[in-house]
Amino acid sequence: MRTTYLCPYSPIPRHFGGAFRVEAMWRALEALGEVQLLVLGDPPPLEARLELRRRGAVVFPSRRNRPLTWLRTRVPAWLRGESIPASRFLSRRRVARVVARVAGFHPDVVVVGDTYLSVLVPELLRMCPRVIVDTHNLDSVAHARVAASSRDLLRKLAFGALARNTAKVERRFFPLAEQVWAVSDTDAEGYRRILGLPRVAVVPNVVEFPDLREVEEEPGSVVMTGSYSYWPNADAALRLIRMSRDLHARGVLARLYLVGIAPTPEMIRAARGLDHVVVTGKVPEVRPYLERAAVVAAPIAAGSGTRLKILEGLALARPVLTTPVGAEGLGLEPGVHADVADLADFPARLAALLVDPVRRRALGRAGREWAERRFSLEAMERRVREELVGG
Predict the structure, then answer these.
(1) Given Cys at both, which of 7, 16, 62, 171 links 113, Cβ 3.0 to 4.6 Å?
(2) Predicted TM-score (pTM) of this structure
(3) Do 197 and 62 belong together in one domain?
(4) Distance of alpha carbon 57 from alpha carbon 189, whole angstroms
């Protein structure tokens, strides 16, 4: 099978959840045959570009995000009901170049790996009858939740506008595809109920499940990972910083680690002067932090899809505490595979878990065993094969 895979960012390096999804999907498609990978959007670092080129991928970098460019691209996209985010890197000239690349490859199937890239579906159908849209979230719902959760007026207005624009994109372009792939049953049901889509399949997010090694836990340590340029992650990090003050004063929490790229100025300010809060920024690997964690915490208040930060914690047999929104779509059993608490109860539940090593070990073991059966790369490869070739 010859597959063209269009994705909105590079799978190298894997420094946030979307890149994990893209890299895993690339590997799953390569298991079926030759893959043409076309990377649109922000260009990766030079070393990553060289590696992508070595593996035959093509990068179409986005334009610089200057104010005049922003107005010239976003406003017309808004008025035409097209994708605002994709307008940065989908000029008419760019679309023509992408379409020409795809046509020259003669694919049997095209996988469009992003909600916003679905605006390419009509052009792609002219050269390939099988076009699939692979989504990372039910994006219109995710943006609407951010708008509802945020207390910042400008953010609330911006995400409200983005939610409406995204809903138009989903309604206009998703029905044209052969299938839409969702990361969870929850998102899939949303597509069926909200958009009336009859052809929706679940292709889960996945993580690696390394052999476990003996690593001494850091007593009283709480770890959260993620890209903090994504507002729900930054909001959760600020919540943890606020919680940590009281828990540290009571001697329950020894240290809070906020691990990942793009920590916000608000996070830096909130952590200033707190010796027990470590904001790492970009790190070579998040695994060492997760392995030492007494608890992996994710007080998520908004978003959609499934959270790779939670799956990473489960994969390393660490006890996870999250919210109902954070656990959404995973299908885990609260209290058995992970602890789940409302935001109001989160500090008390975190404190209770930190002082209960027996419960932490039980959650870690059960979470790892449960997740490995559902969220391994083999599980994704199996689902992709079933949907594209059957059996």
Answers:
(1) 7
(2) 0.84
(3) yes
(4) 33
